[in-house]
């Protein structure tokens, strides 16, 4: 992704591994400060996933893979039994960070599979290679989704997106924003309505930041205003990412996605979900089988930003001690989804068999 | 409304007149500080309306009436000609405070009508009486809506509301929250889902504060989460207020109301609008004839609250210079509305003739 640093534009990935260290763009500090954070062992990387230094399905999956690679390096001098126990333990730690994103579980599984055979030394090599492959697969899938999705974007298109399924949510390009990037790169005029995406405001903080870096025109709106612009005919399509897609095409994604999908359908606005193979979970029959994470109510009652003195500040919005609830995701039934933009092509309804056919191993 | 002050619960109105002084709960400081502000003449009261010391259709109308009463007292020793000139001038000042609030214009008009006949002394008396009547009408209408709306609320009901159409927006009781108050007073168990209502958060700041004072169980949610709870079957009804109702039953209300209505319909959740006669505008044929105010983008990009040091602070959420749009209201088509809770009874569809019949002068 493009990052403007001191007037110079650099190309960076969202996260990467340098030997035993994992480095990440610290997304908790964006858009106000651009910092690269370093994590020296798998526990630190797991904590970074939990603390949302990186977030987004793909990025979390890649970080999980790199954390497994770190674990393998940490245990490289252990006995075979010790190594395997250490890897199983690390897998447990990493699995315990974020319950909803399936990429994380896939990544951990792929790395565990990679260390089932051979000497400890061979197993370490295999895990490192697998972790790199996870990141490479992520990158290639994002690029392909961009090419395929860009065909849906006509010149002058006004796209609405929710949350951040951009480069920052993956290694680069992203899912929902990848078609926008590619269309823009093809010289098409594209405008992006950016839902701010309460409570954590990944839209106004991250998606708007990405659009600003890429020079793509956009406007942040409160989540409440998406329907207003749809009803006025000022939204030509909605594209969102996904945290998990069930076998029947139901989608778990950031809280509010469901509302946008229902209102889009009521207004005849096409609603696309961009998601790579990793996000499709054929073992989950329907959306109702997906566990929804409920996060701290403080994400609703407090918000951080830059105060007038230029410093970070967290402020309390309602009265002290107010009661709040904070489901982090919701489920959008397949009937609201016009199509899935995947690296294997566009999938149109009816979904059930097509999803299973496309992604059966 | 109930207000807990130093552990003691007092019954107060949102605003009232004491001789030549108008007193108001200072809503700019809620929910973090509770203060009563005093305004010694009609110009000070007009400035208070403009500065949003009070807000909400009914409260603004009552404050305008009291400001006219203050003007009458200020001019009570003038000649008849001098008195009338002073009153016309005061009317002009008060009309210039909030150009969009229809209740304010109605109130000023009623007070001007009340001083057309008799001696100066009689005219002063008439204006004072009319200003009191405006407040009394507001109070009676709110109470009636509470009684009528409470019949729709079964024991154990979970009500979702958007923005603040509570006691603070009127003299007492409110519109959308009045049925909740009355049902709670009848001993029914009621739970309120409070949409925070971005961008100004009148839900999390004011509605939650009212529920806290009344001891009614509630939870603040981000606007994005309303659909989630509806789909899970955890919302039994939605009740909102209105800024203006067109003759055909289309409703202009706080941005986001439209989305909630569409999602409520998709889930079979009844969607009620509570509004007094004053809010129905028979001269506006449909919702599309209502002009929608677009407010400053800074309401989207910045937010205020209490910082960790206990002081008021305003923070910037997205990157500096980010682009944003901020429509303040939206229009909900009549087809999404299950019924109108009014002081004249419950109005059910089809609306057009029934609204005109009920409110024709």
Structure description:
2 copies of one chain form a homodimer. Chain A has 361 residues and is an alpha/beta fold. Chain A is built from 11 helices and 18 strands. The mean pLDDT of chain A is 95. At the A-B interface, helix 7, strand 8, helix 8, helix 9 and strand 14 of A face helix 7, strand 8, helix 8, helix 9 and strand 14 of B.
Proportion of residues in β-strands of chain A: 15-25%
Please state the oligomeric state of the protein chains shown: homodimer
Query: Which shape of chain A, going by the Cα principal axes?
Result: globular
Helices and strands of chain A, in order, run as EEEEEHHHHHEHEHEHEEEHEEHEEEEEH
Please name the defining characteristics of this protein.
homodimer; 361 residues; alpha/beta; 7-stranded mixed beta sheet; 4-stranded mixed beta sheet; 11 helices; globular
How is the secondary structure organized here?
The structure is a homodimer of 361-residue chains.
Chain A lengths: L1 E4 L2 E4 L3 E4 L2 E5 L10 E4 L2 H9 L6 H18 L5 H16 L6 H12 L6 H31 L6 E5 L15 H9 L4 E6 L6 H13 L3 E4 L4 H6 L5 E4 L3 E3 L4 E4 L2 H10 L4 E4 L5 E2 L16 H4 E6 L4 E5 L12 E4 L6 E4 L2 E3 L3 H9 L2
Parallel strand pairs in A: 6-7, 6-9, 7-8, 9-12, 10-13, 12-17
Antiparallel strand pairs in A: 1-2, 3-4, 4-5, 10-11, 11-16, 14-15, 17-18
Helix pairs in contact in A: 1-2, 2-3, 2-4, 2-5, 3-4, 4-5, 5-6
């Amino acid at each position: 992704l493009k990052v403007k640093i001191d007037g110079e534009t650099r190309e960076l990935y969202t996260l990467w591994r340098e030997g035993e260290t994992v480095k990440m763009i610290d997304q908790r500090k964006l858009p106000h400060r651009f910092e690269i954070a370093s994590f020296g062992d798998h526990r630190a990387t797991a904590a970074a996933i939990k603390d949302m230094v990186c977030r987004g399905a793909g990025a979390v999956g890649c970080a999980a893979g790199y954390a497994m690679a770190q674990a393998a390096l940490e245990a490289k001098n252990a006995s075979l039994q010790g190594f395997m126990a250490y890897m199983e333990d690390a897998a447990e730690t990493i699995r315990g960070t974020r319950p909803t994103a399936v990429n994380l579980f896939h990544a951990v599984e792929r790395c565990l599979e990679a260390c089932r055979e051979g000497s400890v030394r061979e197993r370490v090599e295999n895990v490192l290679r697998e972790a790199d492959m996870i990141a490479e697969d992520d990158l290639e899938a994002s690029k392909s989704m961009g090419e395929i999705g860009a065909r849906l974007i006509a010149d002058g298109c006004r796209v609405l997106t929710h949350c951040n399924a951009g480069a920052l949510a993956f290694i680069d390009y992203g899912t929902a924003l990848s078609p926008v990037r590619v269309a823009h790169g093809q010289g098409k005029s594209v405008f992006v309505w950016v839902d701010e995406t309460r409570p954590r405001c990944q839209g106004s903080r991250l998606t708007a930041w990405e659009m600003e870096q890429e020079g793509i025109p956009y406007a942040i709106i409160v989540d409440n205003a998406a329907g207003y612009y749809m009803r006025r005919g000022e939204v030509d399509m909605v594209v969102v990412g996904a945290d998990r897609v069930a076998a029947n095409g139901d989608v778990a994604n950031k809280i509010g996605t469901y509302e946008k999908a229902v209102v889009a359908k009521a207004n005849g606005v096409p609603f696309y979900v961009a998601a790579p193979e990793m996000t499709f979970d054929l073992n989950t029959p329907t959306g109702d089988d997906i566990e929804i994470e409920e996060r701290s109510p403080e994400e609703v009652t407090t918000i951080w930003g830059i105060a007038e003195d230029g410093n970070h500040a967290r402020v309390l919005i309602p009265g002290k001690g107010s009661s709040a609830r904070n489901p982090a995701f919701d489920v959008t039934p397949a009937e609201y989804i016009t199509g899935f933009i995947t690296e294997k092509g566009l999938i149109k309804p009816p979904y059930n068999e097509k999803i299973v056919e496309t992604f059966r191993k």
